[in-house]
Amino acid sequence: MKKKPEAMLELYQFEECPYCKRVREKMTDLGMSYIIHNVPRAREKRVKLEKISGQKFVPVLVDANTKTMIADDDDKAIEYLEKTYG
């Protein structure tokens, strides 16, 4: 790992989401600890997620260490993780 994050990254997701799974697997592959926030499967119930990210789609990756938020783009989240912590 390039550098270990000081604060744990946060992932807003739901378990059955294949895009979220890809991001979880990348963080696990990199040996990272992270915080999972499970959001409701129904988009209309994702009020907290919308307040945080401005939209209702998952995955949403939040890195307080670099003040980065990546919403609804698993490829971009994985690329960010590899570049920043890989």
UniProtKB/TrEMBL annotation:
PROSITE patterns named in the record: GLUTAREDOXIN_2 (PS51354), GST_NTER (PS50404)
Q: In which domain of life is the source organism classified?
A: Bacteria
Question: GST N-terminal domain spans which residues?
Answer: 7-86
Q: What is the name attached to this protein's record?
A: GST N-terminal domain-containing protein
